[in-house]
Specification:
Length: 79
């Protein structure tokens, strides 16, 4: 059951992200992050962004143009 919940949460995250990319409005997507969220990217010249407000500014000033497609969700550890 735990993995079903994780898969659903990741699917919802991707759906909100894709809707934001298509509409250009990231408000609903960013609202799902906690106030103290941190967003980091590997091998990309952006970020890290610390806090929901900083993440919102990042999406507003450099919005992504590609949507995401989930191929699989697998547990890689006990936590």
């Amino acid at each position: 059951m735990f993995m079903d919940d994780i898969r659903a949460a990741i699917s919802d995250h991707a759906m909100l992200f894709n809707e934001a990319v298509r509409s250009g409005n990231f408000s609903a997507f960013v609202a799902t992050f906690t106030e103290d969220a941190v967003m980091r990217f590997e091998n990309m010249p952006v970020g890290p962004y610390e806090g929901r407000a900083a993440i919102a500014v990042a999406y507003a000033t450099q919005p992504p143009t590609d949507t995401m497609t989930l191929e699989s969700v697998e547990a890689i550890g006990s936590d």
